[in-house]
Amino acid sequence: MKIKIIGIGSYIPNKEVSNTDFGDHVFLNEDGTPFGYPNEVVIKKFKGITGIENRRYAEDHHTSSDLAFFAAERALENAKIDRETLDYIIFAHNFGDVKSGTHQTDILPSLATRVKNKLNIKNPKCVAYDILFGCPGWIEGVLQANAFIKSGMAKRVLVIGAETLSRVVDDHDRDSMIYSDGAGASILEASDDEAGLLSYESATFANEEANYLYFGKSYNPDLDPDIKYIKMYGRKIYEFALSQVPCAMKSCLDKSGIAIDEVKKILIHQANEKMDEAIIARFYKLYDKTPPENVMPMCIHDLGNSSVATVPTLYDLLIQGKLENHEINKGDVVIFASVGAGMNINAFVYRY
């Protein structure tokens, strides 16, 4: 028995923020000193490395659980099922609901409970809970759903990834340009045909790598040091991802028994275009091959890094035929992979 994604949906906020919108920001070094060059240079370098030109921010009156609800409704519509038949709602996020203009996270009650309430699901045996697993949270939720369904604990599971990272960034940190908001949701159930999840891999590296992403004070020394923002050691994350993610993907693919030449698409967490390209190149190099053209769809250029929402959003766009020069057909093999805070890595091989 395998599990299959029978419904997919995403919510991409309408508020578009371009790179030029950061032209007036006062970017500072970690020690609070100003850069020795203008923002135009900062933005040009940023675009060259990450590939990001635009990103989406949530409307002021929306929170992460709102975005998740919108995506979940679309996934339910896509699956064409009765929502009362859901056994679990697994919600992956990192910062809870952060209202616009505030800095306090709110996870009481859990965001999964809030989504269940918004969906108006009456069944008390539909269990709702949150997971914190960094950017790979949605994939980890899928792996948990796989375990629940295979063990007989569930028949249908709703897995959501949603985040509003725009509300936890330091405006004086150039890395703030990477982050965005969004939500993706999927519904999974048992599959008796050839489609479904074939193999998976998951790992946490928590020695030297544990604090590569962390909560820290603003680079502006005049701001309250007790208010924290998302921070990262970008170079360390880049090196870690390049050394570990391709190996995890290979282990996952080898477990599936699928040949590398059968892989049609790789849906990888969208955080940095050059990093993703390097990961894919190293993955194929492990098989003494080069990546085929169009194997890796990208949406980072216009959507930025929405953390747990990036992979399910990418899959939804692929399924809908909204990614130029990319399509997926029945029987195609897809690798889903992610890396993020923890430091966590995971992947699964899936036959569409």
TrEMBL record:
Domain Beta-ketoacyl-[acyl-carrier-protein] synthase III C-terminal, first and last residues per copy: 253-352
Keyword Transferase assigned: yes
CDD domains given in the database record: KAS_III
Keyword Coiled coil: no
InterPro entries xrefs: ACP_syn_III_C (IPR013747), ACP_syn_III_N (IPR013751), Thiolase-like (IPR016039)
UniProt keyword annotations, A-Z: Acyltransferase, Transferase
Listed EC numbers: 2.3.1.180
Name of the top EC class for this enzyme: transferase
Annotated GO MF terms: 3-oxoacyl-[acyl-carrier-protein] synthase activity; beta-ketoacyl-acyl-carrier-protein synthase III activity
Record-level GO BP terms: fatty acid biosynthetic process; secondary metabolite biosynthetic process
Protein name: 3-oxoacyl-[acyl-carrier-protein] synthase 3 protein 1
Lineage: Bacteria, Pseudomonadati, Bacteroidota, Flavobacteriia, Flavobacteriales
